[in-house]
Amino acid sequence: MEMLKKIVSAVALCWLLSFSLNGVADEIQDANKLFKQGQLDQALSKVDTYLAAKPKDAQGRFLKGLIVNEQGKPMEAISIFTALTNDYPELPEPYNNLAVLYAGQGQYEKAKVALEMAIRTHPSYATAHENLGDIYAKMASQAYDRALQLDKSNADTRTKLALIQDLFDKGARAAKAPTILVADATPVAPVQASAPVAQAPATAVNKPVVVAAAPVVQAAPVAAVKAETVAAPAKVEPAVVPVKAEPAPVSVPAKTASLQDASAGIERATRDWAKAWSGKNVKQYLSFYASDFKTPGGLSRSAWEALRKDRLTKPKSIQVGLSNLKVTLIDAQQAQVSFTQNYRATQFKSLDRKTLVWAMRDGRWQIVEETTGK
């Protein structure tokens, strides 16, 4: 479970850094720098001073939990993160770190429950899903190990146990490079945040090839005209010349204009979606999601809508800002939009990299998939 711990620590630091872009107190920023530099006592002193004036502050308490954990005080860290989940149940990160601490003590059932809560509050939080998978695998490994102790001749159990242990061995090897970057969280955030976007160009590279090939397909009728006019030499020249002259200039600009219109329409839809969210207009907000939208975490559509309604109506005010918006057309009926989302609510702020997949449904663009990356 060491791999899981390191990954979550890096994510936690990035979470704090996202707040630094939204007006976090200088004391917290200074304490965070000291923490990253390994000066734990000095960092803790600054955080304690800050919390003396603002005992309910989520950022300060979160950072204190990280610090005391690094000081080798997991029980105190558990107490801090547990209190955070009680006071700020909408935040998934405290649940995540609470799960990691439980896992470090071998309390995998408690870790599982904490991660399930993280996913329930933030269904698109990828780290919680990944960590929950690790917890399930660890619990399965223990179960197979117990079964093997009861029946050492069971070859199937021995094979499954070996496979699961190999999974963790590979995971540990894969995690070696990222763990070095834990103390240097600033470069980690851009790399992780751009992960979903990095996949989008791959699709975009393939699809323009198809678009470029479209004129070639349209040229097929020219060949057919030539074939037909061979039998009648007198008509060959008049038939071929007009066919070559007209399709090329007419079809390409039309397709380009169509793609530009689609791109502009998708961008408008994305900004209208954010506007409905900011306006806490639940009905309009939910109307942007297609009936075949992939609800995160395996939730039913009704359960997901109830969760989103609660997230929109609970805060007194919401502001959702979009920047660095990029539209990538997959085809004439589907597109991917990536952007930086600046979310501000009454007691919560976050800066996320988000990707929406839009598809044409009943004559309008609707969201069929939504992912968030820190």
Explain what this protein looks like in three dimensions:
It is built from 17 helices and four strands. With 374 residues, it is of the alpha+beta class. The chain has two domains: 2-189, Tetratricopeptide repeat domain (Serine Threonine Protein Phosphatase 5, Tetratricopeptide repeat); 199-373, Nuclear Transport Factor 2, Chain: A. Strand 3 (349-361) and strand 4 form a beta hairpin. The two termini are 21 Å apart.
How much helicity do the residues have? Answer: 55-70%
- What spatial order of strands do you see in the largest sheet? 1-2-3-4
Largest β sheet strand count, sense and barrel closure: 4 strands, antiparallel
Q: Compute the gyration radius: what is it?
A: 27 Å
Number of domains: 2
